[in-house]
Structures are given as C-alpha cells and as structure tokens.
Amino acid sequence: MSDTPAADLPLADHDLAVLVEDWIDWAEVGRRIGVTTSRVKSMIQDHLLAAAVPAPGRGQLVPELFVHDGDLAKGLSGVVTMLHDGGYSDREIIAWLFLDLDLPGRPIDALRENRGSEVKRRAQAMAW
Are the CB atoms for 65 and 29 separated by under 8 Å? Predict the structure, then answer.
C-alpha cells in the first residue's frame, strides 16, 4: 500500500482483509438469520446484502458484522441498495461501511447500534 491516507484511497483500493476482521460464508449467514443459502444468494443478487472475496484464494464471503441479533443489521439492506443504485460495487460498499467516517466510528457500527440515520444520509449523498 502507498503512503496515501486511508480516506484518500478510492474505495475499491482498500484491503478488505484488513478492514473487516471476521467473514462468514453464505450458509452461515442463512443459519444466523433463519433463511436458506439460496435466499442469501438472492439477497446478494438483489443488492440487499453485499459480499466480496476478501483475499485471494477465498470464496465470496459476507462480513460477520452484517448479521446482528438474528437478522441483518438494521438499515443495512437499504444502505446497500442505495449505494448499488448509485453505481458502487459490493467491494466498495463493504469498504465504505468499515471505514471510520467520524459518525463517530464506522458506518457498520452505527447501523448495529441503531444510529443509522446519519449513515443513510451520507449514503444517499454519495449515491446521488
């Protein structure tokens, strides 16, 4: 990586293996939220959930923090859809959710703590 501050890097250039500590496969996502693996795949295809390959040699996975209290983190699907509609890839969306944006903290933490209003406002501003 270069000496470029993290905030100045394009979202697609962030190392997801560094930003996201724990990843789970689609079957585990399904188990935790009570749906089939096929439904998880559909959620990813329908841009309700984001998945990425965090490192070479690994399959497509979902950040573990996307799942909270037996469901997806509150507001996550709406933010993912909004950013996809704005042209962002899953990889870019995951990077954005795990970067510290002075909310305070990372957007994923704000969503998990039911402080999603500012996350949604910022996502909307980015997407349009």
Answer: no
